[in-house]
Amino acid sequence: MAPAADPSPPRNAPPRPSDAEASAALAESLPPPPPPPRIQTLADFVKVHEMLLLATGLPRELYPRLFEKIMAERFDAGSRFAIEEVEGGRQRRVVLTPGGQGLDAKGDVFLVDHAWSFRLGQAREQARPGGERLETVPKLAARMAALMCVGGEEGGEGEGEGEGQGKTEPEGQGAGGNGGNKGANSVDDIILRAVRAALDARNQGGEGEGEVESESSREVEGGLEGGVEGGVEGGVEGGVERDEEWLEMDGEGIDEDMLEAMKLHERFPNLVGLSLWGNRLTDAARVASILSPLASLKALWLNDNPCVATEPSAVALRNTVLASLPNLELFNRHFTRCYSTWALLFAADVAGPHCATLADDMAAAELARLTEIDLSDRGIVELKQEVFSATLLPNLARINLSRNPLPLSLLAPIDASRSSVLLPSPPSPHCAPYNAVLIDLEGPFPFDPYETARTLPHLSSLNGALLSSFTRGGSWMFPRLPACQPGTPLVDRVLHAMWRHVCSYKLATETQLDESAVWYVMDEFGSAFRHSDRPNFRCSPFLFLPDGSFASAVSYSLVWPVAAVQPGEECTRDFLAGVGEEQQRSAKLSVWFHTPSSFFKQAYEQRIVKFAAAAAKHAEATTLLATAKSDNKGDKEAQRGGSGAAEKRVYRVFTDIPHVTDNLSRPEFAFVDNPSEADIIWTSMQVDDAFREAAGLKERRDKGGEEPFINQFPFEACIVMKHHLAKTIQQAYGGTRPWLQDTYDMQCELAALIGCFLEREVAAAAAAGQKLIAGYEGGAEVAKGTGSSEEPELDNTWIMKPWNLARSMDATVSRHLAQILRLGETGPKVCQKYISRPALFNGRKFDMRFIVLLKRLKPLEAYLSDVFWARIANKAYSQMEDSLSDFQTHFTVMNYSGHKYEHVPTHEFVRAFEQQHNVTWQSIDQSVQRMLRELLAAAVTVHPEMQPDGDTCRAIYGVDVMLDDQFQPKLLEVTYCPDCTRAVTYDMKRVFPRPSSGGNAEADEESEWLRPKSFFNDVFGCLFLGETRNVRRL
Question: Are 989 and 969 spatial neighbours (Cβ–Cβ below 8 Å)?
Answer without folding.
Answer: no
